[in-house]
Amino acid sequence: MRGGSKVVVEPPWTRRGVHCFKGKEDALVTKNMVPGETVYNEKKVSVQNEDGTKVEYRVWNPFRSKLAAAILGGVDDVWIKPGAKVLYLGAASGTTVSHVSDIVGP
């Protein structure tokens, strides 16, 4: 999975911080809160904006996260958005909670 200027990262899913990466392979992604770092060796995609800056996204695997699977399955609203306060009880390997952290932001 490669980024660059030939790929498109579509607007957030219901403006909630989740994006759809359209390239050779389609994927659900979140904007990486700590660029350059991964949590569970997930793939990263860098996309160059129109102004020349690069934005890094992390691929969210729906086979490792029930929340990602629910989003891809059509759940309309999970009440997690940028700036929200979230208590997540279930951070075993950090897959879902790391992406929730990306969505909520600092």
UniProtKB/TrEMBL annotation:
GO terms for cellular component: box C/D methylation guide snoRNP complex; small-subunit processome. It is found in: Nucleus, Nucleolus. It comes from the Eukaryota. InterPro entries: Fibrillarin, SAM-dependent_MTases_sf. GO terms for molecular function: histone H2AQ104 methyltransferase activity; RNA binding; rRNA methyltransferase activity. Keywords: Methyltransferase, Nucleus, Ribonucleoprotein, RNA-binding, rRNA processing, S-adenosyl-L-methionine, Transferase. One of its GO terms (biological process) is box C/D sno(s)RNA 3'-end processing. PANTHER family: RRNA 2'-O-METHYLTRANSFERASE FIBRILLARIN 1-RELATED, RRNA 2-O-METHYLTRANSFERASE FIBRILLARIN. Belongs to the methyltransferase superfamily. Fibrillarin family. This is Fibrillarin. It comes from Salix viminalis (Common osier).
